Amino acid sequence: MKRIEHKDQRVGIFIDIQNLYHSAKNIFGGRVNYKELVKNLTGSRQLIRALAYVVKSDTINETTISRTTGKTEASFFEALEKSGLTLRIKDLQVFAGGAKKADWDVGLAVDAIRMADDLDVIILVTGDGDFVPLIEYLRWGFGKEIEVAAFYKSSSSRLREIADIFINLEDLPKVLIRSSGRR
Fold first, then answer.
1. What are the two backbone dihedrals, phi and then psi, of residue 117, each rounded to the nearest 5 degrees?
2. Which pTM does this prediction carry?
3. Tally of domains in the chain
4. 38, 83 in Cβ contact below 8 A?
5. Could you tell me if residue 69 is inside a domain?
6. Is residue 5 one of the residues assigned to a domain?
7. Which 3 state secondary structure label does DSSP give 142?
């Protein structure tokens, strides 16, 4: 289904940074231009809020340099904020056995539900199929239009099916910055 935009539509964007970051890196050897992402997803509509859900690494030192981007975690978070995103930050959970958990699913869902009355369109930027019940609830409980934006190759087929609109991020101009030599 093609997206029909109305300039008076109020849009909220909820970005699962871990999902997006790892999909761009692992599938395409690239990274996401978040400013272009927000611009493309909003279109001519009114952006009410764009939230980015991030997990702080398990190291105490926030200046740890990423092996993949060469940037510090703090500079990555700063770049996200400069892209117009409001950050929701959570510490990485490390359990006694060494297992790690970096999950914002419940927080993202609660924020989307909390903001639903102030939005006409809710855009979930994730390929995670765990959000299917959220989409069903927002659509049937609140009557909201739900768009899902993700990389097709790393998104749940059920998530793509249930969304009112699925946006393949590979199709958006300037959103995926590919490393040289990869296509």
1. -65, -25
2. 0.86
3. 1
4. yes
5. yes
6. no
7. helix
Q: In the prediction, which pLDDT does 58 show?
A: 52
**With the C-alpha atoms ordered 35, 54, 15, 30, is the resulting torsion angle positive or negative?**
positive
Enter the DSSP assignment of 171.
Answer: G
Are the C-beta atoms of residues 111 and 76 closer than 8 Å to each other?
Answer: no
Q: What are phi and psi of 25, to 5 degrees?
A: -70, -50
Identify the segments of the chain with pLDDT beneath 70.
1-2, 58-71, 93, 95, 98, 100-102, 180-183
**Sign of the alpha-carbon dihedral angle for 179, 17, 38, 125:** positive
Distances (CA, A) of 102 to 1, 48, 49, 128, 147: 33, 27, 23, 13, 24
CA pair distance 85, 79, nearest whole angstrom: 9
**Per-residue tokens: 117:** 């009355």
Question: Which domain covers residue 162, as residue numbers?
Answer: 10-178
